[in-house]
């Protein structure tokens, strides 16, 4: 079942409204619970991808069906719809959960994305009664599979990508099930660091339980329940009022993924956005069929991508289940946007999701030009490196993602070196990576001239070169927009495409699939050069203020 089809039995009744002040305090209190979980998760994780890059999310989900009550402001947006589906999966599949239990899972087909996004769900009990679920997700640097880091671009089935975990108890009555833990850690290249990440997720859920208990102690179950129902109603009402500003009709567009890593040909996403009053219906009829490689995308990720696109357009709508009720997404069965077992999914969350968002933005641009922006870089720039450091004798796995340019918008230029459209994460500091791994960054800078021209230009991507210092290492990367850069909107020009060059033994080469590749064995002195896309331009370049162009020249942007 999905959040769209689940029965709701807690609609607010007449005469039960919570006063506005209390309602606001409870709303912020629920958000604060989630944010504190985010911070505990971040500060206690061993992996830089979480402690420095913030690739995680925490939330509170409804006891009945797993729909979202609140998610932390510091959590990645791509997990918006995913964790609701994850939690619903646990509700449907586990009727044996008690206070102090925690379920772990990463199965992409059961509300996930790729295997590296590992989820935990804890039933939260208040005064002996199940009151809600606390759920979180963190990107683990490795879950086994054919390449370090999990971004195998040549995988043709899920089993080649790593350890697939169904909803199983990791913690029972407050104690970690050691057999389960050892089974997981024995399938990971960096078990010691991963153990730290496991305990960080458990600690975050514990912090959430403590803070949510305090909130209920202060205001009482009945008042908080009523507030949650009222907040859902208000969020739905605000989203509907925004949708009503979009002219009725069906708005269409398409976006392309470079390739699936196996067949060197684009995959196409066709989107139809049907607006009728305060309702939106989205379908992907005509999109490419399921692909051979790891760019298939599971339903939870496709759903989340649609939600993110509309939240980018209407950012002021509070985050809870009511925000999504006016939005219906038809399941794109028979396409690569609805992956089923055993299709590989490594690139779904970080790459294909951003093409979905791009297609929706392009579709809505003619309808609401004063609320839209041109497509951003649209790739997370996933780069993985794994090996044994001869200086320490320890196995390492490094996962790195980088920023790119945001698209120009109706009132200004795009952001340079912005995070991926699906996240609020940041690139890990190169100084931290150089301390932990046998690498050095020869240079790291904004990519001159990469933003698409327009009345308002796109933001700039970044350019960097990473060199191996000692030992040997296996490199893989999964990016996108290598065939063509992010398109412009309403007359704007496209941003520069993604570029990758790998140099081994003094010979430089461009990967066959441009933005995707694996099997690169690096030795000391070998390097990988990456240039990320700039954002698309907004509007006719001839309408650009000459003063803005002059300022770009002074700053060295062009």
- Secondary structure class reads alpha+beta
Low-confidence stretches: 1-15
- Which strand-content bin applies to the residues? 15-25%
Biggest sheet statistics = 7 strands, antiparallel
Along the chain, the helix and strand elements come as HHEEHEEEEEHHHEEEHEHEEHEEEEEEEH
Task: List key phrases describing it.
558 residues, seven-stranded antiparallel sheet, disordered N terminus, alpha+beta, five-stranded antiparallel sheet
Description of the structure:
This protein is of the alpha+beta class. The protein is 27% helix and 23% strand. It contains ten helices and 20 strands. It has helices at 20-44, 48-51, 79-93, 178-185, 191-219, 221-243, 299-313, 348-364, 430-436, 546-555; strands at 56-62, 68-71, 102-105, 117-126, 129-139, 168-172, 175-176, 249-257, 267-276, 279-283, 327-329, 382-389, 394-400, 439-446, 462-468, 473-478, 499-504, 507-509, 516-522, 527-531. The strands form four sheets. A seven-stranded antiparallel sheet has the order 2-1-5-4-3-6-7, sandwiched between helices. The protein has a five-stranded antiparallel sheet with strand order 14-15-20-17-18, with helices on one face. It has a four-stranded mixed sheet with strand order 8-9-10-11. Helix 7 crosses helix 8 (348-364). The chain is globular and about 65 Å long. Mean pLDDT is 95; it is low at 1-15.
């Amino acid at each position: 079942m999905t959040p769209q089809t689940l029965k709701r039995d807690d609609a607010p009744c007449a005469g039960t409204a919570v006063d506005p002040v209390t309602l606001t305090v409870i709303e912020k209190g629920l958000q604060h619970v989630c944010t504190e979980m985010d911070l505990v998760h971040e500060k206690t994780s061993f992996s830089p991808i979480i402690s420095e890059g913030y690739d995680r999310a925490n939330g509170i989900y409804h006891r009945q069906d797993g729909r979202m009550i609140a998610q932390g402001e510091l959590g990645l947006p791509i997990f918006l719809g995913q964790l609701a589906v994850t939690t619903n999966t646990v509700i449907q599949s586990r009727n044996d959960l008690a206070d102090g239990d925690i379920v772990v899972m990463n199965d992409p087909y059961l509300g996930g994305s790729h295997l590296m996004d590992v989820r935990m769900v804890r039933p939260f009990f208040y005064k002996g009664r199940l009151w809600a679920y606390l759920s979180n997700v963190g990107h683990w640097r490795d879950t086994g599979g054919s390449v370090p880091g999990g971004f195998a671009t040549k995988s043709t089935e899920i089993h080649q990508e790593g350890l697939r975990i169904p909803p199983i108890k990791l913690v029972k009555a407050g104690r970690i099930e050691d057999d389960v833990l050892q089974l997981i850690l024995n399938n990971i290249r960096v078990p010691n660091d991963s153990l730290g990440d496991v305990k960080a997720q458990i600690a975050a859920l514990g912090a959430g339980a403590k803070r949510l208990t305090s909130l209920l102690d202060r205001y009482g179950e009945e008042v908080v329940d009523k507030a949650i129902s009222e907040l859902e109603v208000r969020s739905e009402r605000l989203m509907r009022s925004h949708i009503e500003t979009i002219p009725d009709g069906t708005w269409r567009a398409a976006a392309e993924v470079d390739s699936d890593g196996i067949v060197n040909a684009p995959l196409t996403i066709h989107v139809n956005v049907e607006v009728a009053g305060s309702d939106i219906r989205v379908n992907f009829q005509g999109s490419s069929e399921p692909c051979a490689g790891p760019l298939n995308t599971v339903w939870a990720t496709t759903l989340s991508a649609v939600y993110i696109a509309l939240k980018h357009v209407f950012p002021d709508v509070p985050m809870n289940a009511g925000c999504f009720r006016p939005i219906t997404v038809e399941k794109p069965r028979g396409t690569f946007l609805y992956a089923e077992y055993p299709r590989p999914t490594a690139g779904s969350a970080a790459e294909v999701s951003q093409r979905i968002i791009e297609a929706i933005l392009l579709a809505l641009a003619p309808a609401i030009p004063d609320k839209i922006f041109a497509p951003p870089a649209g790739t997370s720039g996933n780069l993985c490196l794994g090996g044994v450091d001869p200086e320490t004798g320890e196995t390492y796995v490094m996962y790195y993602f980088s920023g790119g340019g945001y698209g120009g918008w109706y009132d200004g230029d795009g952001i340079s070196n912005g995070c991926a459209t699906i996240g609020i994460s940041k690139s890990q500091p190169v100084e931290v990576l150089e301390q932990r791994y046998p690498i050095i960054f020869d240079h790291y800078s904004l990519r001159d001239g990469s933003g698409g021209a327009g009345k308002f230009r796109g933001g700039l991507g970044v350019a960097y070169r990473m060199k191996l210092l000692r030992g040997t290492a296996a490199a893989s990367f999964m990016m996108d927009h290598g065939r063509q850069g992010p398109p412009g909107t309403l007359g704007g020009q496209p941003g520069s495409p993604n570029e990758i060059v790998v140099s081994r033994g003094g010979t430089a080469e461009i990967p066959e699939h441009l933005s995707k590749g694996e099997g690169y064995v690096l030795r000391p002195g070998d390097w990988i050069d990456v240039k990320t896309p700039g954002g698309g331009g907004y509007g006719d370049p001839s309408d650009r203020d000459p003063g803005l162009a002059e300022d770009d020249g002074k700053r060295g942007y062009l």
